[in-house]
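Page 42, continued from yesterday. The earlier attempt failed because a stray header line got pasted into the input along with the sequence. Redoing it now with the clean sequence only.
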Amino acid sequence: MDHEFAARERKRDFLYFHFWPWCYRLFSKRPVKRKLVVFANDCVRTLPDNMQCLYDELIGRGYRCVLCLKPKHAGNPISAQIRSFCNYLRFIYYYAQCRCVFLTDYYFPVYAAKPREGTKVVQLWHACGAFKKWGYSTLGSTWGDKKGRMIERYPIHNTYTDVPVSAEKVIPFYADAFRCDESVIKPLGVPRTDRYFDPAFVSQARQRVLSRFPEIGNRKIILYAPTFRGTSMYDAHNDGFPDFAVMKKALGEEYAVLSKLHPFVEQSRTEPPHSQDGFSFTADKDLPIEICLCAADLLISDYSSLIFEYALLERPMVFFAYDLDVYDKERGFYQPYRSFVPGPVAVDTDALIRAVWQLGTGGCPPEVQRFKHDYMNACDGHAVERILSLIS
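This time it went through. Structure tokens are written below.
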């Protein structure tokens, strides 16, 4: 095992400190192509929503957009490694000549070479606001311990020229997570939030849910959307759900529950929450999260950054934080959880039911209004336009 680990370290050293920088310098001998843009993400095989809206706009403006996404499934580990290597080499080739690279997550090869003059590296990130810690902010925690040694040996998040965020208030947290100067972090908005300012998009969401689950009828929809437990997409899971049978008895006449698990958990094929006929339903990939959010009259979440997007809709939220102490110890938050979240915190099903009844009688709670103003004020329906101004 030690021999295998040492071999991986030597390989990573060679790629990060020697091969990728050398390739970048070689390919940089060609001029920057002003109409060439790269979208890079090695976790998915299709463009994430934060990229898709920019991609569509750039194609419409006549740009050439190169996609460097996760390679298709290979039959064996050696084949997978070869495909991954070729994909990264292809990325370096275009990175050295493009006007801009767009990222939504960690992408290891981009950190091996600083961008040349005329090239932007824009980290869109995959979440709004700043809730639970990530990146360098997690060093010293259980979450960060597994990655700490590698991060210190191979610096990451070190090549960004611009990081658009949802509000000025979150700038210090992003600067801490990426260990970069605050001047790089810019309150330009989050691309995918533009759709929440399209009345037609928001209004059709409930009908899409009803066409999939007509049993809901005229009842209000509670969306249950928890984040994952685990340290990565490879061990993601959920191990605690509300008791939907008890919820059905208390809320079933007025409400129905729609559950939407985190994409990492969906990919892991974790069993969804136990359904209750006519009361709780599980949304699959045919109902993306943005549709579920727009269709929901109330959100139940835990530590998911979806709460920032949902705040744009100005609807109530409840927080089912049954493992708060454990999660806080292992991962940590940028601000004290109970005073930060814009809604009541429940640790069991009975408290959850009481919170739903409490919030179901009014409109938008004032704490949601304040939360939206503090953490989402750069999201106004024009984020794509502002972000693309960085490269125009």
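Notes: The longest strand covers residues 33-41.
Reminder to self: strip header lines before submitting.
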